[in-house]
Amino acid sequence: MALHITNNQGIFEINGLLNATNTGLISNYFETIIDKEKMITISLDKVKDIDKVAVKCLGTLYKKAIVKNKIFYIIGSENKKVRDQFKEQKMFYVLRRDVF
C-alpha cells in the first residue's frame, strides 16, 4: 500500500505503511513544514503498520521541531500498532492523546 499524506484542516494525516522504505520521504516532507509552520500536528490514526525506523524518524522530527521552538504533536495513540511500536522503542512520550 502506498503512503499518503493529507492536510486535513492543519492536521497532517498519514495513511498507509510507515517504514524504513519511506522514512526519507517523510523526513524531507516534514522538515520543510517544520521550517514554515509554527504548529505541526501529525495523525497516525490511519497508519496500517509502522516499524522502529519510522518511529525513530518521527522522534528525530519531534526533536528538530522542539529545538526550533515549534509546537509539534504526534497523535495516534488509539492505533494499537502505533502505540505498541512507540512503547517498544521507548518513544511513547512523543505521542499525544487524540484530543483534537
TrEMBL record:
Q: Which PROSITE patterns match?
A: STAS
Q: Name one Pfam family in it.
A: STAS
Residue span, STAS domain: 1-100
Task: Kindly provide the name given to this protein in its UniProt entry.
Answer: STAS domain-containing protein
